[in-house]
Amino acid sequence: MPDPDHALIITCEHATNHIPRRYALLFGDLTMPLMDHSAFDNGAAELARLLAARFAAPCFEADVSRLLVDCNRSPGHRGLFCPRLEADERDALFNRHYLPFRQSALAAIEAAVSSGRRVLHLSIHSFTPCLNGEVRRADLGFLYDPRRQGEKAFCRRWLATLKEMQPSLRLRRNYPYRGVADGFTTAVRKILPPESYLGIELEVNQRLVDEAPPVWAQLRQTIAASLAAAVAGER
Ligand SMILES: [Zn+2]
Questions:
Q1: What is the rounded distance in angstroms from the CA atom of residue 223 to the CA atom of residue 50?
Q2: In angstroms, what is the span from residue 12 Cα to ligand 1's centroid?
Q3: What value does the mean pLDDT of the chain take?
Q4: 125 CA distance to ligand 1 middle (Å)
């Protein structure tokens, strides 16, 4: 985002299904990567990297599966760690993976704010099309804090642009989760005011990621193009 007043910063909390070898026994002596949706957000890293490249934005990815430590949960949340981990293992994962990810992303966000720019933080995720028997029909979900007018207005503009570019897309706000639920953007909102920080989570239905590769590749391009238009409207 070559704009002196705004900075785009991208994070991907559930980028990988990587389980370091020393923890493999917790998951039945893993010999193959865990492809289950609970291990990572399939497709999210691909989209995050595309957006980062397109907008020359920094991109921070968690480097371990959320099954071990969930970088989109706050310290103290009961879903932060795999329940089978010992206390020393939790500490090690927190210090080696969680903290470096959170601190480096937060440092970039705070540095941009200190230099007088308004940060648009996009946290990129994907969701499973079927959870506990419930079929989730939306294609994309935009999560934000409805009390923050800047986030609300940005999402409204982004949704409208996307709908214009690809009318068949089913777009939802604060779906399949609420934007104010525990997460990295929610944590940053507690530190930075609405004038200097917009925190938006984008959730992509994994059904679209699993479709034919050209369809997913095209959708990534459409998301990037619509974001460019929404950002231009922000200036
Ligand atoms: Zn996620």
A1: 10
A2: 8
A3: 94
A4: 4
Distance 174 CA to ligand 1 centre (A): 14
* Contact assessment for residue 201 and residue 185, using Cβ atoms and an 8 Å cutoff: yes
Ligand 1 center to 112 CA (angstroms): 25
| Per-residue pLDDT at 154 | 97
Residues whose Cβ atom is located within 5 A of ion ligand 1: 14, 41, 125
Q: Structural domains in the chain?
A: 6-234 (3.40.630.40)
pLDDT digits (tens, 9 = 90+) for 145-166: 999 999 999 999 999 999 999 9
How close is the Cα of 25 to the center of ligand 1, in Å? 24
Q: Dihedrals φ, ψ of 3, to 5°?
A: -150, 125
Task: Provide Rg for the chain, Cα atoms.
Answer: 17
Q: What would the two tokens of residue 177 be? A: 């989760």
**Distances, alpha carbon 124 to alpha carbons 28, 40, 116, 206, in Å:** 29, 12, 25, 12
More confident residue, 220 or 131: 220
Alpha carbon of 73 to ligand 1 centroid (Å): 10
Band of pLDDT at residue 30, cut at 50, 70 and 90: low
When mean pLDDT is compared across 27-36, 135-144, 145-154, 194-203, the lowest value belongs to: 27-36
Q: Ligand 1: distance of its center to the CA of 14 in Å?
A: 5
* Per-position DSSP letters for 171-197, written without gaps between them: EEES-SS-TTSSSHHHHHHTTS-TTTE
Q: How far is the CA of 4 from the centre of ligand 1 (A)?
A: 30
Q: What is the pLDDT of residue 29?
A: 62
